[in-house]
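Annex B. Sample input.
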Amino acid sequence: MASSKRWASLICSIAFSIYFFIIIFQVPIFSVPCRTGICETPLEVTSSQLIASEIFPRFIVKVLLYPGALAKAICKHKTIPSFGNLLKLYKFNTRAITSTSDLQRLEVLAGSYLSVAGAIMGLIKSGKMSLFGILLLMWGLIRESIMGKSSFTHAKGIHIYPAMYIALISAFFSIRKDVRKIIRSFTRKHVVKGKRF
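Annex B, continued. Sample output.
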C-alpha cells in the first residue's frame, strides 16, 4: 500500500512538472487566431483577455508572461527581454483590444483560463482543473476546425500541435486519485496472475 502511494506521488509530481513547464514556459500547443494575431499558448489567450477586460493589473499579466518570454529568448539566442517592454513584445499594446473579440471561441477561452489556473493552483494542490482545461481546449479547437471545413465559420490558422497531447497526458497523470486507482488495479491483476501459477 505504501509503495503504491509512493509510486502515485512520484508519477503525479513528474506529470505535473511537465504540465507546468508546458503551460508556464509557453510551449506552443495550438494555433488559433486571437486579438493580437495568432496565439499559440493558453497563457497568450488568457493574458490578452485579462488585458482587455482589465480585471487584473497589467503587472500581474507581465509576471505570468515573463517566464515564457525568458525561455523563448534563451532558446532563440536573443537578448533577454525587459519587464517593462513585455506587453510590446507580445503585441498586446499595439492593437485596440476589446473584451468581445475572443468571445466567439468560448471553449478555447475557457479552456485557456482553466489550463493556466490549473498550472498555478497545482503548485498548492493538484486537481482536475488542468485536465478539464486541456479537454475543453481540444474540444473547442476540433469543433472550430470541423465547422471551418463545413463553411460555418472561419477556421483558418487553427492547428493542434503534438505538445497538446503531451499536455493532455501529463494533466491526466497529475491527478493523484486516478493514478492510485490505476496502480492498484494493475497490482491486483499482477497478484492474481501470480497466485494462479
